[in-house]
Amino acid sequence: MMEIRNPITVEEAAKRVMACRKYGEVEYVDITAANGRVLAQDIIADHDVPSFDRSPYDGFAVRSIDTKTAAADNSILLNVVGHIGAGSVFKQELKEKDAVRIMTGAAIPRGADTVIMLEDTEQAGDNQIYIKREMKHHQNISFQGEDVEKGSVIVSKGKLINPGVVALLATFGYKQVPVSKKPVIGVIATGSELLEVDQALEEGKIRNSNAYMIMAQIERSGATAKYYGQFSDKLDICIQQMQVAMSEVDFLITTGGVSVGDFDLLPEIYDYFQAEVLFNKIKMRPGSVTTVAQLNNQLLYGLSGNPSACYVGFELYVKPIIDAFLDRDQIGLKTVKATLTEDFPKSNPFDRFIRGHYVIKNSQVTVAPSGKDKSNMVHSLAEANCFIRLRGGTAAYSKGEVVDIYLLENHS
Amino acid sequence: MMEIRNPITVEEAAKRVMACRKYGEVEYVDITAANGRVLAQDIIADHDVPSFDRSPYDGFAVRSIDTKTAAADNSILLNVVGHIGAGSVFKQELKEKDAVRIMTGAAIPRGADTVIMLEDTEQAGDNQIYIKREMKHHQNISFQGEDVEKGSVIVSKGKLINPGVVALLATFGYKQVPVSKKPVIGVIATGSELLEVDQALEEGKIRNSNAYMIMAQIERSGATAKYYGQFSDKLDICIQQMQVAMSEVDFLITTGGVSVGDFDLLPEIYDYFQAEVLFNKIKMRPGSVTTVAQLNNQLLYGLSGNPSACYVGFELYVKPIIDAFLDRDQIGLKTVKATLTEDFPKSNPFDRFIRGHYVIKNSQVTVAPSGKDKSNMVHSLAEANCFIRLRGGTAAYSKGEVVDIYLLENHS
C-alpha cells in the first residue's frame, strides 16, 4: 500500500522530538575520569582563592614603612629573620627592619604588608639584604578571596568538562565529580542487502556501514551505543527483537526500512506496537523519510538506510536529545555562518544539508562541500567537519554567498 | 646557587623537543572502539564501490530502446516480469518490452540499461505499467567502481578516525582496525605546598590541581596518563621514585620544581641522572622556566608549578610529541588568525600566550582573553578554547588587530 506522507519542516520535526525529551540521572566518577563528561551540578567554592594572603613573587616579605626612603642611590639594610618555602608558615611577627625570604605562593607572615621581588634586592651578607626601592602598603600581595570567594558558583551544571574545569574541580576538592549519566542508545540495522563487516562481498549486497557509523556518532555525542545486530526480515521475529531492545535502552535507532518501498517493515512494526509516529516525512534532503515515533515516552528513531541521510538524521534529531538527556548547556550542533568558496548549482526544493569542510583563513570562515561530485563519496565521509544548510525554496547558491554551517567536531 | 639560564625562542624549544620524537607501535582494535583513535595504516578499497551496477532509485529497470517513442501523450505499455529487492539478484535477462521492479541499491538485471523512476510510471494492471517518458542508454545507473575503485587508498594513515571514517572502514571490511598505540605519559607533582584533592585545606597550602589538569590534557591529546602522586621533598627518595616512573612510561612530566628557587629539586635530579637538559628557559610568558631534558632518548618534562604556565607548557611542547608518537597528520595545535575584540594594554617583552575564548560571528573569527583581569582565574580556566599568541618585542595590542590563536578543542 502506497501511503501518503505529510512532510513537515526541519524546525517542526526538531520541536516534536524535543517535546519528548527525557533527563538522565546524576552519577559520580573519579576526577581522573571526568574529562569529556557533562557536569551535573553547580560547582561551589569550598574556600576562598587564595585561601590566605600570599606572595605572587619570589622575594622578601617586608614592612613597607621600613622601605620609605629606599631608592637606587639610597640602599636600606634589612635583617633576614626567616625563610618561608611554599606550603610552610612563618609563625613570628615581623619587627622593625625585618625581612623574610618568601617563595611564590607562600603565606605572607604577620607584620609584613608587601613583598619586594628578589631582583630588587641585593645580598649584603649571610643574613642581611639591601633594598633599593620604596614599597607601598599592600603592594605585591595576592589577597585572600581575590580570585574566588568562598560559596560562589565556579562552574555551572551543563558544562562539558575540559582540562581547565578539571583544574577547578581539583582546587575545590572534588575527588568525586557529579556528572550526567550517559544515555544508552540501541542500534539495529535493517535491510536484506546488508552483510556484516567481516563477511565477504556477494553480488547485490553491501556491507553494513550505517550501524557502525551511527555508533561512532553516538559515542562522539557523549552517549553509549548498544548494537543489536541486523533485524530479521520476518515481521514476528522483528517485533520480538525490537521488544528486547526497547526494554534495555533509553532510545532506539533503526537504520533503513523507512522508505515507502515494498519491503520496508518499520511502519508495520510501529503499527503493531501502536507507537505514535511523530513524523515520517521532513522537508529536507537527504533524509526526507526520517521517521521518529514514541512509545510509552521512549523515542524510536527510524533513520534512512542511505548513509548521508542516516548521518544527517542522527545529528539533527538524535544529538539534541542526547544533549537534553545530559542536560548540557548547548543543545544540538553549534551553528555559525560561513562563506561558500564554490558554486552549488542545484536548486533546493527542500532544505538541503550537505556535508562540508570549513576552514579558517585570515580570520574568515569559508566552506565548501566535502564531496563535490558523486565520485567523491570517500572524501565526503572522511573529511566532513560540518553540514552546509541550503534553504528550501532557493535556486542555486554561488561562491561568495554566506550560508549556515553546523559544526560536527567542535566541542567547546 | 643561582644559575644563569640561557633563554631560547618558542620555535627553537619546539624544534629541540621534536628532534627527540619517537614513533609508537601499531595495534588492532575492534571497529566499535576505533572512533577518536589515529589510523596507523592506509585503508585500501578491497572492492569497487558500487561493487556492481546498481539502481540509484526506486523504480523499474527497463531497456531504453523500448522507451524510444514514450512521451506524456504517448504511453508505452511494458510487462513487469519480476521484482528485485535490495540484496537480491534477478537471474533472467530482460527481453523486448520487459520491465523489472527494482529497489534503490539493487543490482541492475542483465538486458536492462536504464532505470525509470517509480513516479514516471503508472500501474496498468497486475503485471503491466505505462511509461510516459523516453529514457536514455545508461541513464539512472550507478556504475560499478564509480565511487571508489578497488585497490585505491581510501583514507591515509595519520588521520584521526571520525564517524565518517568508521563508515568507510565498515564498507571495506575492516572489522579490526590498525590504530596507533597510545603513548603512556607519567605525571608526578612536586611542591611542598600541595595537598591532595581529597585533603582538607591547611594554611599556606593549596590543593594539587596541576596534575589532574595535565592528566585531562593528556587524555584530550589521545594519550594515556599514569599518575605517580606527589614527589617526596627528599632528594634520594625522589630519585628512586623517578627511576620507577621512567621505566614504566614513554614520557614523564613533573609539575613544579623548575624555578630557580631554593627548594626546587628538579635540576639536581637531572644532574644526578646526567640527563641532557634541552632547555630550561624559553622566551615566553607564562612558562619561561619550562624545562625539558632527555635521558636515553626518553623525554622528561619539567613543567612550571604555575597553573597557566603548566597548561601552556603542555600544549606547546608535550602535545606535538604525542601527535608525533601517534604519527598524526596534524602535529600540535591548529593555528588560525582571529581579530581581537579587546585591548591588551601590557607590553610583551617575550612571546605571550594568553588563554582566550574565540567565537565565530558572521563568518568572522574574533577572540578575547578569557580571563581579563586577575580575579578571573575561574573564567579563564573553564572558558578558554584557545591561546592568543602576542609576539615578543611588541607594545600593547589594540582591539581590531589580527593575532594568531591556537585552537585547544578543535579535533577536525
From TrEMBL, chains A, B:
Q: What does the record give as cofactor?
A: Mg(2+)
As its record notes, the protein acts as a catalyst of: adenylyl-molybdopterin + molybdate = Mo-molybdopterin + AMP + H(+)
Tell me which Gene Ontology terms the entry assigns under biological process: Mo-molybdopterin cofactor biosynthetic process
**Protein origin, superkingdom:** Bacteria
Question: Which GO molecular function annotations are given, in alphabetical order?
Answer: metal ion binding; molybdopterin molybdotransferase activity
Q: Which InterPro entries match?
A: MoaB/Mog-like_dom_sf, MoaB/Mog_dom, MoeA-like, MoeA_C_domain_IV, MoeA_C_domain_IV_sf, MoeA_linker/N, MoeA_linker/N_sf
Q: Which pathway is this protein engaged in? A: Cofactor biosynthesis; molybdopterin biosynthesis
Q: What are the GO cellular component annotations?
A: cytosol
Concerning its family, UniProt says:
Belongs to the MoeA family.
Outline what the protein does.
Catalyzes the insertion of molybdate into adenylated molybdopterin with the concomitant release of AMP.
For this entry, the protein name equals Molybdopterin molybdenumtransferase
Q: Which organism is it from?
A: Gracilibacillus oryzae
